[in-house]
Design goal:
This protein is mainly alpha-helical. The protein is 86% helix and 0% strand. The protein folds into 2 domains: 1-39, no CATH class; 41-82.
Length: 88
Protein backbone atom coordinates (compact mmCIF):
# COMPACT_ATOMS: atom_id res chain seq x y z
CA UNK A 1 0.00 0.00 0.00
CA UNK A 2 2.82 2.40 0.88
CA UNK A 3 4.59 1.67 -2.37
CA UNK A 4 1.54 2.75 -4.37
CA UNK A 5 1.25 5.93 -2.29
CA UNK A 6 4.92 6.81 -2.87
CA UNK A 7 4.61 6.14 -6.62
CA UNK A 8 1.49 8.30 -6.77
CA UNK A 9 3.17 11.17 -4.91
CA UNK A 10 6.23 11.03 -7.18
CA UNK A 11 4.00 10.90 -10.27
CA UNK A 12 2.09 13.98 -9.09
CA UNK A 13 5.26 15.90 -8.20
CA UNK A 14 6.66 15.66 -11.73
CA UNK A 15 4.01 17.86 -13.43
CA UNK A 16 3.89 20.23 -10.45
CA UNK A 17 7.66 20.71 -10.68
CA UNK A 18 7.45 21.30 -14.43
CA UNK A 19 4.75 23.94 -13.93
CA UNK A 20 6.74 25.72 -11.24
CA UNK A 21 9.96 25.71 -13.25
CA UNK A 22 8.18 27.16 -16.30
CA UNK A 23 6.38 29.84 -14.27
CA UNK A 24 7.58 33.44 -13.95
CA UNK A 25 8.78 32.60 -10.44
CA UNK A 26 10.91 29.74 -11.76
CA UNK A 27 12.35 31.97 -14.48
CA UNK A 28 13.19 34.61 -11.88
CA UNK A 29 15.03 32.06 -9.74
CA UNK A 30 16.92 30.86 -12.82
CA UNK A 31 17.96 34.43 -13.67
CA UNK A 32 19.22 34.94 -10.15
CA UNK A 33 21.20 31.71 -10.27
CA UNK A 34 22.71 32.77 -13.59
CA UNK A 35 23.63 36.14 -12.09
CA UNK A 36 25.55 34.49 -9.23
CA UNK A 37 28.03 33.08 -11.72
CA UNK A 38 29.73 36.48 -11.88
CA UNK A 39 30.29 36.28 -15.63
CA UNK A 40 28.25 39.38 -16.52
CA UNK A 41 29.53 42.91 -16.16
CA UNK A 42 27.49 45.51 -14.23
CA UNK A 43 26.43 47.17 -17.51
CA UNK A 44 25.07 43.90 -18.85
CA UNK A 45 23.25 43.24 -15.58
CA UNK A 46 21.63 46.68 -15.77
CA UNK A 47 20.51 46.01 -19.35
CA UNK A 48 19.10 42.64 -18.33
CA UNK A 49 17.17 44.30 -15.51
CA UNK A 50 15.81 46.97 -17.85
CA UNK A 51 14.78 44.35 -20.41
CA UNK A 52 12.99 42.38 -17.70
CA UNK A 53 11.10 45.52 -16.63
CA UNK A 54 10.18 46.26 -20.25
CA UNK A 55 8.96 42.68 -20.78
CA UNK A 56 6.79 42.95 -17.66
CA UNK A 57 5.37 46.26 -18.86
CA UNK A 58 4.70 44.77 -22.29
CA UNK A 59 2.79 41.86 -20.74
CA UNK A 60 0.70 44.33 -18.70
CA UNK A 61 -0.05 46.36 -21.84
CA UNK A 62 -1.07 43.22 -23.72
CA UNK A 63 -3.49 42.30 -20.93
CA UNK A 64 -4.93 45.82 -20.96
CA UNK A 65 -5.29 45.75 -24.74
CA UNK A 66 -7.09 42.42 -24.59
CA UNK A 67 -9.51 43.83 -22.00
CA UNK A 68 -10.14 46.91 -24.13
CA UNK A 69 -10.84 44.75 -27.18
CA UNK A 70 -13.42 42.76 -25.23
CA UNK A 71 -15.05 45.96 -23.97
CA UNK A 72 -15.14 47.40 -27.49
CA UNK A 73 -16.77 44.25 -28.84
CA UNK A 74 -19.38 44.46 -26.08
CA UNK A 75 -20.15 48.10 -26.86
CA UNK A 76 -20.33 47.34 -30.59
CA UNK A 77 -22.85 44.57 -29.93
CA UNK A 78 -24.95 46.98 -27.88
CA UNK A 79 -24.81 49.64 -30.58
CA UNK A 80 -25.76 47.20 -33.34
CA UNK A 81 -29.15 46.39 -31.80
CA UNK A 82 -29.90 48.33 -28.60
CA UNK A 83 -33.50 47.02 -28.43
CA UNK A 84 -32.44 43.38 -28.64
CA UNK A 85 -32.07 43.08 -24.87
CA UNK A 86 -35.44 44.72 -24.20
CA UNK A 87 -37.30 42.34 -26.55
CA UNK A 88 -35.82 39.22 -24.98
Amino acid sequence: MWVIAVILVVALLIPVTAILVDSPLGRSVARRLEGQGGGATPGVRELERRIEVLETDLEDLNRSLTGMREELQFVQRLLEDPNKKRKA
